[in-house]
Amino acid sequence: MYTFAAACAAWWQQRYPLAIFFIALGSLLGWPFAALLGIPVAYDMVVRRKLYVDFVAWSVIAGSVVLLPMILIDSFQFGRVTIAPLNIVLYNVFGGAGPNLYGTEPFSFYLFNGFVNFNFIWVLALLSPLAILLGHFFLPMKNKSTLYLPYWLSVSPLFLWLAVFMLQPHKEERFLFPVYPMICLCGAITVDIAQKLCFRIWNVIKTVPHGTHYLDITMFIMISTIVVTGAMNLSRIFALYRNYHAPLDLLIELNRYPAENNVPERTIINVCLGKDWHRYPSSFFLPNKNWNVRFIQSEFKGLLPAPYSSGSNATYVIHDHFNDQNKEEASVYFNLNRCHFLLDLELDRETELEPNYAKMKDRWKAIKSYKFLDAEKSNRFFRAFYIPYFTDKYVHYGNFSLLQSTKLRIK
């Protein structure tokens, strides 16, 4: 996202070497599929401006500057020649198991997801091609380009990205991250053209004094857009915090535990997760390196993370139990009886592998609990946006708890 935004800034000012460098940096050091966003830059250089030599030369230079240090560092760390961007492409596109193992979503996924995160800005962004077309035919502008480029080419990365990723069965919210700045830009373009069209219509209905700027009459459109979308953005922020803050706050509580309870720094502590393994944010929340994250068996049947081996060559080791089919591997499960702490979400649904641990008072005691969204029982709109009074009527919560074993002593 950051490198693409920087690439666009350079591209729109015809600073092509810098644009190519940022595309290479985002694609090679970041995510190889982000190279798709460089196609409009390549089209501009090669097709429109015939800068063949410059394009090839700067692509080779930028690619080498970014890729060669990556290969050297990765190969040193992993003990064999490693080209990470190539591995990602091979696994996901050419012959690997592919991303569909990790879930698929319908075509409409990004349409709804875009609205949830950008509300009406997303709608305005999608309407920008229509707005640009209307502006072309009905607005008497001397210059209809963004600096040196035509409008359609400037905004094309967003729609090229959507055209490709909306057709992929495997969809994730993060796949839209690279074009987030472009969504904001396209939304702003639509608002600006709408203001000019309204001014044009107003000028036809009622002649305005000579020299009147379109903003003098249409400022209300911009202000209304900012107020409505800003209010919905705040509503979204409140909803995200209320619904999902529990795991972070519980781990902050866990981080304070050894200082408040005089736990020796060398004590080995096991912090366990079951069905909520995917809600664990980062090991940086743990007090020190002797506190270990462990996974207990649950209804999840995919491949769970595993810790590095101990020793100086830990990054060289490829565990035998790893696979590229997302198949369950029983050897990574930890014995529940050896867990000092357990992070667990308490809902009304229980199974043999996912019991309500908080109710087992003889084995666990709750140190801290926070509310956490029960998505299945909550209204889709009111769980996405916080509306005072109404949200509490249509949204249901469970308790996310930090539990401590009553069987194991921490000393």
UniProtKB/TrEMBL annotation:
Pathway note: Protein modification; protein glycosylation
Gene Ontology cellular component annotations, sorted alphabetically: endoplasmic reticulum membrane
Protein's cellular compartments: Endoplasmic reticulum membrane
Membrane topology: Multi-pass membrane protein
EC class name: transferase
Keyword Metal-binding: no
EC number: 2.4.1.-
Segments crossing the lipid bilayer: 20-43, 55-73, 120-139, 151-169, 175-194, 214-234
A Gene Ontology BP annotation from the UniProt entry: protein N-linked glycosylation
Gene Ontology terms, MF aspect: alpha-1,2-mannosyltransferase activity
InterPro entries: GPI_mannosylTrfase
Sorted UniProt keywords: Endoplasmic reticulum, Glycosyltransferase, Membrane, Transferase, Transmembrane, Transmembrane helix
Superkingdom as given in the UniProt entry: Eukaryota
Family: Belongs to the glycosyltransferase 22 family.
Protein name, as recorded: Mannosyltransferase
UniProt lineage: Eukaryota, Metazoa, Ecdysozoa, Arthropoda, Hexapoda
